[in-house]
Amino acid sequence: MGVTIKRCLIALIFSAAIISKMSSCAPKVKNGYSKERGFEGNISLSGAFALYPLVVIWSEDFKKDHPNVRFNISAGGAGKGIADVLTGMVDIGLVSRDLHPQEIKKGAVPIIVAKDAVICTLNPDNPNYDALLKRGLTKDELAGIFIDRRYKTWKQIDPRFTADPINVYVRSDAAGAAETWAKFFDHKQEDLQGVGIFGDPGIAQAIKDDKYGIGFNNINYVYNLKSDKVFDRIDVLPLDLNKNGQVDPDEQFYGTLSALTEAVATGKYPAPPARDLTFVTHNKTESLLLKEFITYVLQPQAQSKLLENGYVPLSQTLIKEELNKL
């Protein structure tokens, strides 16, 4: 037994000597940067489904200039992103809603990187589809569907509609889209009523499968980026913003993705449900690598990717404000 332990100790000392030798030869990396190799290391991000596609694009572009950087990106909802970053599970939380006061107290630091919107969705096979596109629904009528459930059939909203049921789909996970949609009605996510579905893709699929369904989605899960039009079997239910019982020409900006993102950028589409998309770090980051990546996504090259991918770029004034947080 004594001989075995002695051999283990000798092996351990020998291994330590090798590691020490290797370490002395390796370039010194401080916060993800070394003079010899430039930026290197791992960046982990998790959170909002809304930000996930954009972060994948940004990470691939960033790696072209910094090949020694590796990314680990996962989508699980804004609530997961906040929880992960505050517990040190990831470097950056992807968040698509306003931060709660208690999250800020725990050290959450938000940096706005883009804008988008949550939109009301329905199935084109709904027997009231044509009438709904012309009429739209007011904020109060939508609250009667999603909050207090005073409307259980389409006919209860308008006698011209059919008496078919309104099947409501909401998010089951802690989600920025749900929080933003609820905020449109001055409520919180837990006040939304309906069948809980996990994730943005889940709600989109539920709407496609149910001609009486109504829900809400991030823009990118409704519009096809290549065609600039909505995907098959899902469409946007317009908002009757001035409450006059019809969708006026200045309220009709859902025909193409380009028209909708312009409406978000100009404020024609209200906020909420338009919203900021943010990177959240735990306290002010000291990592040179994280600072470099966040700075990159706020530069013209990265911001130029937004419109073509269904997002709205930030103004130069806002970009300067966000860069000052680093």
UniProtKB/TrEMBL annotation:
Q: Looking at the keywords, is Electron transport present?
A: no
- Superkingdom of source: Bacteria
The cross-references to Gene3D superfamilies, in alphabetical order and at most eight, read: Periplasmic binding protein-like II (3.40.190.10)
InterPro entries from the entry? PBP_domain, Phosphate_ABC_transporter
Q: Which organism is it from?
A: Sphingobacterium thalpophilum
Q: Where is the PBP domain?
A: 41-299
* Record bears the keyword RNA-binding: no
| SUPFAM superfamilies per the UniProt record, alphabetical | Periplasmic binding protein-like II
Q: Which UniProt keywords apply?
A: Signal
Query: Know the name of this protein?
Result: Phosphate binding protein
